[in-house]
């Protein structure tokens, strides 16, 4: 990580996982700030910048999805990448509802080295994306377009990754079977991804400086 290691905020109400993530990431060179209380984690992010937030889903009394929604209401929270970490499988409705607000998903429990590898791989992908946007800004591309470029790339990666961890079932209503329900939800996800890819491709066409 060099002289300026990445700073990661960990929000998890279970001490065993909070400590395990901190231990693993510290051992591979990251600076970790663990926080048990989601409200305190939110306040930390309001006060100071972080390179990444690792957020648990199953927390009480405020779960990870509600915490994510709150994070996205202020500037640091909107642009800081958030990776959800959970022992539960995702359901397809969570992908549809929250995928656009995330940067990825990691499954618990984990092997320390594999967890480090997952976070390393994220930054190996994300840092060039940020560098590309910064270069575009220096060449006169508007900050709003640069932010959109970062955001849409992050969204495509997150939604695609989340699909690897989806529980292959769906709660149907009386008009459809479980399989039909899942097929319909998957069609919604494919539509979201197609829309996001079109947005990314349109930015590249209008601003050839974007290359990642």
TrEMBL record:
Q: Does the keyword Phosphoprotein apply?
A: yes
- Domain Response regulatory as annotated: residue spans: 7-123
Record keywords: Phosphoprotein
| KW Phosphoprotein (keyword) present | yes
Name the UniProt record assigns to this protein? Response regulator receiver domain protein (CheY-like)
Q: Which InterPro entries match?
A: Bact_response_regulator, CheY-like_superfamily, Sig_transdc_resp-reg_receiver
Q: Which residues carry this modification: 4-aspartylphosphate?
A: 56
PROSITE patterns named among the record's database cross-references: RESPONSE_REGULATORY (PS50110)
The Gene Ontology biological process terms listed for this entry are:
phosphorelay signal transduction system
């Amino acid at each position: 990580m060099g002289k300026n290691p990445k700073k990661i905020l960990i929000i998890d109400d279970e001490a065993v996982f909070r400590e395990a993530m901190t231990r693993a990431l510290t051992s591979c060179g990251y600076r970790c700030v663990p926080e048990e209380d989601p409200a305190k984690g939110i306040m930390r992010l309001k006060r100071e910048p972080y390179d990444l937030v690792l957020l648990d889903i199953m927390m009480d009394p405020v779960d990870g999805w509600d915490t994510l929604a709150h994070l996205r209401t202020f500037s640091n929270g909107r642009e800081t990448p958030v990776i959800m970490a959970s022992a539960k499988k995702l359901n397809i409705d969570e992908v549809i509802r929250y995928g656009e607000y995330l940067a990825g998903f990691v499954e618990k429990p984990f092997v320390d080295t594999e967890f480090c590898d997952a976070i390393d791989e994220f930054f190996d992908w994300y840092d060039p994306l940020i560098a590309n946007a910064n270069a575009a800004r220096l060449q006169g591309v508007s900050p709003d377009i640069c932010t959109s470029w970062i955001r849409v790339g992050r969204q495509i990666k997150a939604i695609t990754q989340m699909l690897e961890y989806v529980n292959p079932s769906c709660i149907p209503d009386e008009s459809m079977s479980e399989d039909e329900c899942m097929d319909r939800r998957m069609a919604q996800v494919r539509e979201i991804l197609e829309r996001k890819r079109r947005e990314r491709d349109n930015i590249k066409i209008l601003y050839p400086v974007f290359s990642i």
